[in-house]
Design brief:
Radius of gyration: 24 Å
Strand order of the largest sheet: 14-13-12-15-16
Largest sheet: 5 strands, parallel
Distance between the termini: 49 Å
Number of helices: 20
CATH topology of the largest domain: Rossmann fold
Shape: globular
Structural class: alpha/beta
Helix content: 25-40%
Length: 554
Amino acid sequence: MSLHQRLASKQKQVKSSTASKIIDENRAVPSEPTVRAPQISHLSCAKYGGPSDAVASEIVYWEDIKIDAEFVSPFKLKDTTQYLTFEPDRAGFNNVRMGVETVVALAHAMGRTLVVPPDRSIWALDSAENNQKNSFSFEEFFHFESIVIEHPGLEIISMEEFLRDVAIKGEKFKATDPETGKINVLFPPNNKTNWDGEDLTPLWDYLRSIGLVRKCEPDENVALFPSSRDDEDLRKMEEMWQKIIGEADGRAMPQVSDYEGKPVPVDSPAEERLREMLGGRVNACFYDREMQDADLVHIKEDWQDGYRMLTHFYVFLFFQDWRQDLWTKRFIRDHVHYNDEIACAAARVVEAIRKRSKERHPETNPNGDFDSMHVRRNDWETQFGDYIVSSSELYQNTKQELTPGRTVYIATDEKDKSYFQPMSNVYDVVFLDNFKAELGNLNTNFYAFVDQLVAARGKVFFGVYLSTFTGYINRLRGYYSVKEKREGYRDGIIESYHLVKPQDRNLYRTYHAFQPSAFMREYPVAWRDLDYGIEALYNSYHASKKHLRQAVST
């Protein structure tokens, strides 16, 4: 059975066990706690060749918050299925991942069924070594099956299912011929439903023609979600936006520097949270009635025309209700993470590094602590030459924070390891290549994901400013910092640094609010204080259901 088939089968199993009720006129909600998967926060690696559960737990930063599973967007309809389709970014996987996180968050916020694009080749994940698979769909990296099982508020289907079961039937997508007035059904190109590995240009053109496409460039816009479908909530959001942008209350437009070392409490009023989030942006995309009523919302990707979802979900989506904002951040943390096979491979490598480090210094390093780096060179030389350093500069720029003799794990695209000789002269330098045995039969295209997870476990980390690969490592480090309550975790501070440029070096050592462009780095708002207010969300949600039941009974 294919991944798509398993996904559909499990989704039907869950949906059939969950009755629907409504809070307002059309909103769909589950009645009682739903069928649940095994504890998702428990990582068992027995089927992947180890390590033990105790060792594997070090890789786990996600949580299994049972009451989070019951939350459904106020925009999810009871009797009508609406859809969200999207065109993935054309660049490397970490850019693609950012977009996937954002569309998953958008799909839930909109109450829409997310349609996963066909299998496709992804830049730098296209090795065909040993005839291995090198064209992928996103559920091969992430736990989309668990999302479907855990959260009746989000449905996920394949593009093939969408085209076969919705578009081909000819009931939803139609257009009126301007000359004849005749209503024509808009069928997929050549009535084709399976586009895996194909040129997707005709498919994208079709989806653009049948869906609502809004230009909402994330570095210039904020996507604003009211607390409910009530027009009054939308009106209040629009008034709040105009008040801030128009400086109507006498306060100047917020500056990013206003929040340096001064995070806004996560349960602050919507206006204060939005002011911190703006980062200088003065445009907004409201989830208004037109978008709410559209059968299909399609997210277009066109670099030249300004359509690109190269953003972090948490600096693009703004929720009027702070509880939904935190829920969304927990949702991505707890569910959109690398699959168990990848996580287990990383756990085996971390175990081997800790053993090596401990054996080198058993008395001074009983925990086997190690430090880590990400050094990007090959494509960086032509794109961002200012961020390329010589081997001696690499050593000089990092020696202040690193301990001589300590094991340093380096994730890198540099093939000539002699470049790292100045580092090797002082530290015990290791690479993923040193741990091929621990990687087992893992697809080599997934090695980069293992690199990220391993590097995230370093005590001290140095990375590359502007690199989304480094950025995600730092987000993971933020999650781990909160889980392990490391120094500074309450303010989102992590022990991470950038390799070059003094002005960028210590950005993770102080709280900073978002500043475009989003891809350049990650921000503490992604991991700081996420578990606050879980009970508040739960109580509010069930109070709404109780109110509905009382209204029905009377």
